């Protein structure tokens, strides 16, 4: 049987277009800002604003303080902005830290079909490269959009398999998007842009072992992908070489990470400039893994409709896609009694129990150390089981159904087939702005937050990215680096 790689290789025609990386490079290089539809530009600005608000909120967290101190030990001085800091550093360190801050609360956007957080890796690379090169707002927007398009497609071609193999697609696929975004802002030609993808393939990384202990390494993945993208693009611009078949080759991304090339590899380059995946990026309503959101909303719908209390519950069964089980349902005992914020953010039993006990939507504080030790929540979480749902919409939607057996003999259920925040059930602009204001308020005044929002809103009319980056340089006093 002819596999996906064979079909790609058979279609090569030489020149820069040879292989998938060349086709991606030619397409991305040829797309101008004026070619991007108005709704694409508006969505890009929405995603930027959402990401930056989360970064400000992360500055109040211990993981941010320790990351900033650790990176500060080895970072160099430079002109690159770290969100919430008055001090600038070298571009690579800024990209690493900003990616960590955007992703740190697990509140950042997700491309559902690619199963990755796109903005957390692409935006830091675009900001750092744009700032270094003195680019305009339009140039940074273009690079951000096209980097997002590439990252999403690299994830989509894996057809959900990165997670199954223990890789975090945000770090792996995101690095390719970051390399394209940085390369466009560095002024690479199409051949160099193809090479940047070839180089970053040896840097793309991120494993899911953090799930076993709830450790912090996941937070580093998008920042590392952003730094890798900057590095690869800079090397390519200096004449360094990289493999042309980085995606489809015998030892390319999919063969090495997934053990097969029999995948829809054409998806990596398909429809660039014609079908806009940035419009399919979902803004999160909750600061937790996207896989658990439908279960929170389902539990709240049942609360509102049935009026029961936690003590009335005998058992709860959550119906979930098979592909999501390992991340948010297993091992069962860890999920029922989370030992860390990450454990809780990746736990269906915890979020369902927390929503029922607290009788409201969940926020950042519901995943802090005090909240995850709430015995009333843990008692109910101990009565939550799961079963695989053959009707789930994964990966296009992260469906969830909650079935509650009450002690009075009744059984009640609610199903969320399309999770709130998905592209076909998006949060409204007012909801997203409210989310930004709430997140930014952790470290910014209303006036400071309004300044950042205004600069992003007017980015396509700005002659320089400096207006945005200066607004981000706010001394928060939360870390030793800054």
From TrEMBL:
Pfam families attached to this UniProt entry: MmgE_PrpD_C, MmgE_PrpD_N
Stretches assigned to the MmgE/PrpD C-terminal domain: 286-449
Domain of life of the native organism: Bacteria
An example Gene Ontology molecular-function term: lyase activity
Cross-referenced InterPro entries: MmgE/PrpD_sf (IPR036148), MmgE/PrpD_sf_1 (IPR042183), MmgE/PrpD_sf_2 (IPR042188), MmgE_PrpD (IPR005656), MmgE_PrpD_C (IPR045337), MmgE_PrpD_N (IPR045336)
MmgE/PrpD N-terminal domain sequence ranges: 24-264
SUPFAM superfamilies: 2-methylcitrate dehydratase PrpD
Family: Belongs to the PrpD family.
Name of the protein described by the UniProt record: MmgE/PrpD family protein
